[in-house]
Task: inverse folding
């Protein structure tokens, strides 16, 4: 039964027979379901957050209560399962080791088989499957090595919670500057209840010595369903950030509403790559995660550069538009996307490129693959404001359809207010040609391999933007995701 | 045992019978040529043997090394060593020729119980075979057949044949669209592949190619039937007298 | 059906008073629907770029009878058509019209017994409803099976405005029988503060062909909010051109439904934006059957403070295999204050389809300009020539020869700096 949002925490705690200790009882596992101001106070208190952050959360919550869940997505083949916001537990401490599988022997063999197919290194499989890390290898030492290297370069990279404690002035300066706490329904919810995430700061002139990934991959488990990431690249710096991994991620939570904010100062470059493979539901469309994410990058300085690359194969429903605000003159925004939907999956994704500065450039390449009863929607906005002299945009939006019951939809919006700009949008649809399959067959290649090869070829321009090892995994992931969808 | 044996093969497309009783036997080491005018069924025969599902086989048999060919899926035929050099090779965007070919080579090798070729071994082989047909190896980094000129496509087909080492190779009008120099290069590549175990079926409209790939047997195809079989002299005679001559003598004998 | 509220509707009263007869139930119902829908605002997706704010409070009056001026007739007549039907302020003007060709009737006398809105999917459209409420006259064209009407029928509507803001419309109902062929050109012209809401409904039987054009050359005080609906049986061809060179707002909403196998629809648009004109085209092409082809080519040349919006949706229904659909929107901005918005959309529920869309916006291409300059052509002339080339591509494709010639001259007259171009450019 959903709780009355007006219940105070005391009443609530009493009713649920639960004794709270705000700060001391930090090990308590999970807050009972429900959302109200007191829950937000508890989250903030547990994380020992400064007052301004609590107020920031509460402000977001107040606004969220007045907002309504958006209803404009294009979900032709999906029974919307209403989200009961009072049925979600908004705080859950990391699982303790004794609750986890002790070794790989205790892990679902089907999951391990998938890891095998994806070519995930042996030592990482255990960590991904949630095996208590200490039982496998000493992750702390690995993490420490990475930290030392980063520290030497002056790069700050830590969990969001740590950043709030250790670098409060940086967090306060940039939090909510790109995605305001009231930007949209899900961003407001995230601002109110986010539990953790990542923070990175690259100082002036520093080229981050490693992809911010490997460390993250092992340690990102249990960051929760309301993740918040903030990356600031100061003048002349460079960072490449990798989020997610190809391993299927199972999660009991229905809703994931993350927020990612990127800020690039003068001459700085941020490259943000995502592989999203959350549980998509079964072949009948039952279950699966709703992945509603707000991602936005601000090219604040002249000649700054923000690049989004995403490979989306998971989730029952995806709703995300990684965007760029091109404020600095000569700044560059990029969006490269592969979205694959199979069975009953629905993806509504794309980007917004807002050109404010002179000679700003943006490039959009979107590849949608629909199979089964999957639907893929590209939704995009390219806006050239009147001051954006000589701005350029090129958008290419290709869809591949596999089977008579899937769908591919393209809804771009192009708004041009400056005549010196040049905007080009192209979209096409295709299917895999029977002659192409026959040609491959003739050379001894099986149907399944031929399809996977052709689909990977279709996505080539996007994969080229991924870091090498990520690209290899992404290719394997597409093949695995398409299994059983080709005859 | 014969390598390829076709008996009374009939095939239709969209209800129209194109092949009307083909009988053909090719032994190991032999090069056969099939000549015929446009629409005689030459390319249909090639595609039917390779397993194109657009064609319906209504009667007859075909075996490769004594095994029923018509029962195999197209990719199994490929792995069993049947190779078709396409008349119009299809383009596959985004898939590099190298990657495509490595997948094919390893599929065939696996089928033959051989180890997978590693990247090094593969590239070594590529270099060697590309030289046979003077194919610029830079082409192999491009998507399959995309942006290839007509001549490059045909040379790439013969190059793929060299890479896959089939036991029975069918060349479907590989000479069409080639100038004389390119024709010599392609023929040289094919001749290098001739050996006592391998059979060839060279489909062509013109006798010209047969100056360079000298056939053991020449067949003339008309309206879906082989109406005449002879040695290479038949090709020369046909060149001289034209396809009308064949039509005339077959209609009078019929 | 009519409610009490409608019985006392002031608009209905005004219409009845003016026409001196009572309105039919379907028109009253339309008036009711119009009120129920309400005046559109820009929060609605369909009206996002079309600003109707400054005419929202305008009190529109049903247009009174008026006499046609000879100057207007001369200005807007098109040479070389087979028949000319002239309407002034929404009513037929027999003195300036030719005899009605066979198969052509006036809607006016038949208005009460002719079912309207049969083909139209515009139930949610305020101005479509207004059009049905206001309609007093129009044309019914019925081409029997196999008949090919020579030349084209020119339907000219001229607004002769006075002091009051007036609203008027025409309904054109077209039925082209199996394997029959017809050409229809509509002209919308005139002056005065006016609101015109024309609606054309076309039904094409198997293998029929309709070549249609709507030419909007109204004055800058006129707001033009029109609709076109077509329904096509197997193997039929519908070609339509929407030429927006006048009006304060020139908006056309098109719904083309390809219901039978192997149908073909080609809809072209050309907009010339000067001053603060807003050109707005909203298209919906429905591929309901397999093996149909559709083409949408829309170009806008925008000068001054003009704006253009293009919304085009291609909908491929489940099972509509072998669909071949192409959609393109090109905008050429000639001034720093011109604006363009494009929303090309694909919605596809079948896999064996070929659909592409493209949209470009920019100024005159520097490379092309340089090429002409390098050949010694003065810059101003070169710019005009390139602007001409941009629009000529659409004009050349209009399948109605009489209109093509008329349009070429009209465009040439409007093109900035066109006086530098030789008239010969038209024929070359």
Result:
């Amino acid at each position: 039964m959903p709780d009355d949002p007006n219940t105070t925490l005391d009443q609530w705690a009493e009713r649920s027979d639960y004794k709270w200790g705000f700060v001391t009882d930090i090990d308590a596992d999970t807050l009972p379901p429900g959302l109200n101001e007191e829950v937000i106070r508890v989250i903030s208190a547990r994380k020992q957050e400064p007052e301004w952050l609590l107020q920031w959360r509460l402000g977001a919550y107040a606004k969220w209560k007045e907002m309504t869940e958006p209803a404009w997505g294009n979900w032709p083949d999906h029974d919307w399962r209403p989200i009961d916001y009072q049925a979600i537990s908004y705080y859950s401490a990391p699982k303790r080791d004794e609750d986890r599988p002790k070794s790989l022997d205790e892990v679902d063999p089907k999951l391990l088989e998938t890891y095998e197919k994806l070519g995930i290194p042996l030592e990482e499989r255990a960590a991904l499957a949630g095996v208590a890390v200490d039982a496998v290898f000493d992750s702390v030492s690995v993490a420490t090595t990475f930290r030392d290297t980063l520290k030497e370069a002056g790069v700050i990279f830590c969990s969001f919670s740590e950043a709030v404690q250790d670098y409060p002035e940086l967090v306060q300066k940039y939090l909510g500057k790109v995605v305001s706490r009231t930007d949209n329904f899900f961003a407001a919810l995230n601002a109110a209840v986010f539990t953790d995430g990542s923070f990175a700061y690259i100082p002036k002139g520093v080229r981050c010595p490693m992809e911010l990934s490997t460390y993250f991959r092992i340690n990102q488990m249990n960051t929760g369903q309301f993740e918040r990431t903030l990356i600031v690249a100061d003048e002349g710096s460079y960072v490449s950030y990798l989020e997610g991994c190809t391993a299927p991620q199972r999660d009991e939570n229905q809703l994931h509403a993350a927020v990612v904010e990127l800020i690039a100062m003068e001459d700085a470059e941020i490259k943000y790559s995502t592989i999203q493979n959350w549980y998509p539901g079964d072949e009948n469309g039952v279950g699966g995660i709703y992945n509603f994410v707000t991602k936005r990058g601000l090219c604040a300085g002249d000649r700054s550069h923000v690049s989004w690359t995403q490979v989306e194969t998971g989730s029952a429903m995806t709703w995300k538009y990684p965007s760029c605000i091109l404020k600095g003159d000569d700044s560059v925004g990029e969006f490269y996307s592969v979205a694959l939907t199979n069975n009953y999956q629905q993806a509504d994704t794309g980007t917004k490129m807002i050109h404010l500065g002179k000679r700003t450039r943006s490039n959009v390449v979107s590849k949608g693959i629909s199979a089964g009863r999957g639907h893929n929607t590209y939704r995009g906005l390219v806006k050239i404001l009147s001051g954006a002299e000589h701005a350029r945009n090129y958008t290419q939006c290709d869809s591949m359809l596999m089977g008579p019951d899937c769908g591919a939809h393209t809804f771009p919006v192009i708004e041009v207010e400056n005549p010196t700009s040049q905007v080009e949008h192209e979209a096409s649809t295709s299917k895999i040609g029977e002659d192409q399959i026959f040609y491959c067959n003739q050379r001894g290649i099986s149907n399944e391999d031929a399809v996977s090869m052709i689909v990977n070829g279709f996505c080539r321009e996007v994969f080229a933007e991924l870091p090498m090892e990520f690209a290899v995994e992404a290719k394997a992931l597409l093949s695995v995701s398409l299994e059983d969808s080709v005859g | 045992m014969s390598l390829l044996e076709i008996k009374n093969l009939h095939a239709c497309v969209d209800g129209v019978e194109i092949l009307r009783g083909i009988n053909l036997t090719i032994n190991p080491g032999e090069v056969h040529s099939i000549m015929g005018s446009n629409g005689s069924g030459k390319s249909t025969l090639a595609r039917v043997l390779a397993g194109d599902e657009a064609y319906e086989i209504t009667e007859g048999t075909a075996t490769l090394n004594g095994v029923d060919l018509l029962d195999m899926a197209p990719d199994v035929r490929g792995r069993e060593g049947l190779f078709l050099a396409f008349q119009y090779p299809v383009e596959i965007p985004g898939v590099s020729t190298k990657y495509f070919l490595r997948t094919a080579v390893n599929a065939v090798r696996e089928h033959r119980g051989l180890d997978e070729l590693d990247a090094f071994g593969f590239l070594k082989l590529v270099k060697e075979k590309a030289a046979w047909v003077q194919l610029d190896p830079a082409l192999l980094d491009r998507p399959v057949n995309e942006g290839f000129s007509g001549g490059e496509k045909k040379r790439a087909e013969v190059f793929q044949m060299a890479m896959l080492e089939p036991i029975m190779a069918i060349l479907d009008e590989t000479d069409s669209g080639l100038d004389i120099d390119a024709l010599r290069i392609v023929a040289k590549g094919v001749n290098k592949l001739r050996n006592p175990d391998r059979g060839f079926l060279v489909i062509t409209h013109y006798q010209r190619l047969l100056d360079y790939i000298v056939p053991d047997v020449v067949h003339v195809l008309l309206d879906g039937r082989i109406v005449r079989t002879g040695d290479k002299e038949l090709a020369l005679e046909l060149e001289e007298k034209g396809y009308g001559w064949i039509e005339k003598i077959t209609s009078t004998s019929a | 059906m009519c409610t009490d509220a409608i019985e006392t509707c002031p608009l209905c009263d005004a219409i009845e008073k003016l026409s001196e007869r009572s309105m039919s139930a379907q028109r009253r119902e339309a008036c009711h629907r119009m009120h129920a829908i309400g005046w559109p605002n820009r929060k609605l997706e369909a009206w996002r770029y079309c600003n109707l704010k400054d005419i929202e409070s305008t009190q529109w009056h049903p247009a009174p009878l008026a006499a046609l001026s000879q100057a207007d007739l001369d200005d807007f007549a098109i040479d070389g058509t087979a028949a000319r039907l002239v309407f002034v302020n929404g009513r037929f003007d027999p003195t300036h019209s030719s005899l009605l060709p066979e198969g052509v009737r006036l809607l006016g006398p038949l208005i009460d017994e002719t079912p309207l809105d049969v083909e139209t999917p515009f139930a949610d459209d305020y101005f479509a409803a207004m059009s049905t409420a206001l309609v007093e006259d129009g044309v019914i064209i019925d081409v029997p099976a196999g008949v090919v009407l020579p030349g084209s029928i020119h339907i000219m509507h001229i607004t002769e405005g006075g002091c009051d803001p007036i609203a008027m419309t025409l309904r054109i109902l077209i039925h082209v029988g199996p394997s029959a062929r017809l050409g229809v050109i509509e002209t919308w012209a005139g002056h005065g503060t006016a609101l015109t809401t024309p609606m054309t409904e076309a039904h094409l039987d198997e293998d029929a062909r309709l070549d249609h054009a709507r030419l909007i050359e109204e004055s800058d005080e006129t707001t033009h909010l029109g609709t076109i609906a077509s329904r096509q049986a197997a193997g039929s061809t519908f070609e339509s051109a929407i030429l927006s060179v006048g009006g304060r707002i020139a908006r056309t909403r098109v719904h083309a439904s390809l219901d039978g196998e192997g149908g073909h629809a080609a809809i072209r648009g050309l907009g010339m934006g000067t001053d603060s004109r807003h050109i707005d085209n909203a298209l919906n092409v429905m591929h309901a059957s397999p093996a149909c082809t559709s083409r949408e080519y829309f170009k806008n040349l925008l000068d001054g403070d003009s704006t253009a919006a293009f919304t085009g949706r291609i909908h491929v229904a489940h099972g509509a295999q072998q669909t071949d659909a192409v959609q393109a929107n090109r905008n050429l901005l000639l001034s720093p204050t011109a604006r363009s918005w494009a929303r090309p959309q694909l919605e596809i529920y079948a896999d064996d389809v070929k659909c592409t869309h493209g949209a470009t916006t920019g100024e005159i291409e520097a490379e092309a300009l340089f090429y002409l300059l390098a050949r010694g052509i003065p810059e101003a002339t070169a710019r005009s020539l390139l602007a001409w080339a941009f629009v000529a591509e659409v004009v050349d494709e209009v399948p109605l020869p009489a209109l093509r010639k008329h349009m070429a001259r009209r465009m040439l007259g409007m093109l900035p700096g066109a006086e530098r171009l030789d008239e010969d450019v038209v024929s070359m």
The CA atoms of residues 251 and 280 of chain C lie 4 Å apart. Chains C and B do not touch (no CB pair under 8 Å). Chain C has two domains: 4-260, 371-428. The mean pLDDT of chain C is 90.
